[in-house]
């Protein structure tokens, strides 16, 4: 879970606080749903003044805080800036919002078929050798590989190898969103990755600028074409930052989400049957709803981190006012909000009739995921060929190898 309790590398912490921190992290990581359920009932806005930390767990509170970026500001800036430069998720200024809108226009909805084709090509390639009970590591051989192909063919990363792209994206995701103790070596790895990626993109830009303007139509080419339009803010360095930011956003998030969807599907034979029928009938809209509901039950990310800019009053249990102090680090527990029994009917049941507004899988408010539509297409197209196989069976639970991301997930696949 993202950098929730701070304490810089090597910092000495009193024993009592160390024990408290361990217990807190255990509850948050290992007993997430039960912990959130208790908090929603007993202490929905939990203020831990000594740790300078606040947890917000109820649906309407999480929604309100995410909508209020004047008070609840993103705090990823220093880590993002150090890796890729001044990217939209780094802070809440109007310039970033404008830039996001311009970038969104370039990630055109008309690209849906193209995205599908890229994912299909990559999944066919990866599944071509499947025979009877072939063991496949879904992470290294599928869920990371496919978004990486999108990064190369749709975003326009042509200068880097697969291994480079994966290690850069993982290093930066780790530091920006999961470096909970601000460990120096994790931060340094991200800075080094950011430097390498920026060199690679600058080389690509220089190469593109020597080419015919119409030579390619990926996101990088579109960004460069936009430079000729006045006032859009896409100078070379911002193009470098945007492309690097897209890489960070795309790979581990999609990979992690696919692993979670598969885990939930494999634990629910009735839903698996429904999904197989939907895949056979090419019912993409149904498959999308199904993936989204499975991700609500097991989200890739159960909380979003914000910094509170001013004292902020909220309503706690028995209508008592709880004040979030200015300067607190606030964990907006979207994983809890999506299971808030006061708003979400039968929150632990799989249901396809929920309103769109009950899902925070891609966040909410001004930092709503830039790639949500792309990710939706990818997830459906990645899961479909697996559902069309004769048999899928888990061989082991996902292995995180002490890190924040699934590194291996061994399944037996039969054609
Ligand atoms: C299933 C896959 C994905 C999931 C679950 C996911 C989730 C999220 C979430 C929860 C946020 C909000 C972070 C916050 O408010 O603190 C976010 C932001 C973002 N995502 Fe995604 N994401 C996914 C795929 C992608 C892809 C494919 C891209 C690239 C096209 C992308 C690019 C971004 C960017 C650039 C932001 C920052 C937006 C902003 O600051 O306004 N994501 N994502």
From TrEMBL:
Cofactors required: heme
InterPro entries reported in the protein's UniProt record: Cyt_P450, Cyt_P450_B, Cyt_P450_sf
Enzyme class: oxidoreductase
GO molecular function: cholestanetetraol 26-dehydrogenase activity
Alphabetical list of Pfam families matching this protein: p450
Gene3D superfamilies referenced in this protein's UniProt entry, alphabetically: Cytochrome P450
Entry keywords, A to Z: Oxidoreductase
EC number: 1.14.15.15
SUPFAM superfamilies from the UniProt entry: Cytochrome P450
Family: Belongs to the cytochrome P450 family.
PANTHER family: CYTOCHROME P450 YJIB-RELATED, P450, PUTATIVE (EUROFUNG)-RELATED
Protein name: Vitamin D(3) 25-hydroxylase
Organism: Sinobacterium norvegicum
The gene coding this protein: vdh_1
